[in-house]
Specification:
Helices cover 40% and strands 16% of the residues. It has 13 helices and 7 strands. Strand 6 and strand 7 form a beta hairpin. The longest helix has 23 residues.
């Protein structure tokens, strides 16, 4: 029985090789009772990453995120990356990997892989034996890319409502220039907020923006010296450049626009264009335009984090701090994955936070 299983598995791998794909016989063959506790099965349906346990054989199509070439202690190249589907993501390694494979493997943002999970420092990671680029359909993409769990229509409706509640007519006219841009607003509803750090899912940009605007609406009464219109509009507009900085049609990647220009600069340029059109209805008074542009170019707070200027108005400070609050809080929650049992008490180091995260809620 064991020999028959091994023979079938080797024939399957040989067939894949004849088809022109990179294929390797795994070190542990599914069906072999000597797998030392590995869950041996040939998966027929997509295996959700959120359900993967230690010592599980994995085969299927997934999204590949943040692929990087690295070297072992003996100076041999290997691939490290995150493997993702709509349910979550897992750290992965391909120990037998050549630099010449990198461009081909990462060309589509999606891969077919075979491998096995294993525990490492309290976390489950995926050791990949075979990996190749794979084209996917629109339906498959929906199963492979994470999406917001919140109602996109309701969030966008609330964002629009808050913008239209601004007091100054010139600010409302400016907001309407953005809201009337159907292509931009469609992308705003669908784009992720980031590649991986926070709100890295379809609808993430809208969710992040909505969350900040709701927080501001509740907090602003505590700071009567801040201008509500400037804060609300800036929270809406400051990240809109991500709709062209990021590509979510082939996994999550940076576009050429994102690499060469970036969302900060694009956002400031768009603001100038939209304000020029809005001035035909109601012109922004005084230095309002310059102040709004300053908030966009300073919202990353520090030059080493991508800010062109350090925040230099009370509203700019508030927007930068609120942006940082929501991004880092969500990053810590995403890393902790408290909704899933198991996985150890500590996460891997979250580089955006410069620390590991203690996962348990002690009062739960």
């Amino acid at each position: 029985m064991m020999r028959a299983c091994v023979a079938r598995w080797r024939r399957r791998v040989a067939s894949a090789s004849r088809g022109g794909r990179v294929a390797r016989v795994p070190r542990r063959i599914p069906g072999d009772p000597r797998l030392l506790g590995y869950i041996a099965r040939m998966p027929k349906e997509h295996q959700r990453i959120a359900t993967l346990e230690d010592r599980t054989y994995v085969e299927g199509v997934y999204s590949i995120l943040n692929p990087q070439l690295a070297q072992t202690r003996t100076n041999k190249p290997y691939l490290k990356c995150m493997i993702r589907d709509a349910s979550g993501e897992i750290s992965a390694r391909v120990w037998s990997f050549e630099e010449a494979q990198f461009e081909a493997v990462t060309s589509t943002g999606f891969v077919f892989l075979r491998g096995s999970t294993q525990a490492y420092q309290g976390q489950v990671q995926l050791i990949i034996e075979q990996i190749e680029a794979r084209e996917v359909t629109a339906d498959e993409m929906m199963a492979l890319l994470p999406s917001t769990t919140k109602d996109i229509g309701a969030m966008f409706g609330r964002v629009s409502e808050l913008l239209r509640s601004m007091g100054h007519p010139a600010m409302r006219a400016l907001a309407e220039q953005y809201l009337a841009d159907e292509r931009l607003m469609e992308d705003f509803r669908r784009a992720p907020a980031a590649m991986s750090v926070h709100h890295a899912w379809i609808g993430g940009l809208l969710e992040h923006t909505h969350q900040m605007m709701e927080l501001a609406d509740r907090m602003l009464p505590l700071y009567p010296g801040l201008n509500r219109d400037i804060v609300l509009f800036s929270l809406f507009a400051h990240d809109l450049g991500k709709t062209v900085e990021l590509d979510w049609e082939r996994g999550f990647n940076y576009t050429t626009e994102g690499q060469l220009i970036g969302h900060v600069v694009r956002g400031a340029v768009w603001l100038q264009i939209k304000a020029a059109h809005a001035s035909k209805v109601e012109k922004l008074p005084g230095e309002t335009m310059r102040v709004l542009q300053h908030i966009i170019v300073s919202h990353h707070a520090l030059p080493e984090f991508g800010a062109a200027k350090v925040p230099a108005t009370p509203e700019a400070v508030f927007v930068a701090m609120l942006d940082n609050l929501d991004a880092k809080t969500q990053a810590s929650l995403s890393a902790a994955k408290r909704e899933f049992a198991g996985g150890g008490e500590w996460t891997d180091k979250v580089w955006a936070l410069d620390t590991k995260i203690y996962r348990p809620d002690p009062l739960a």
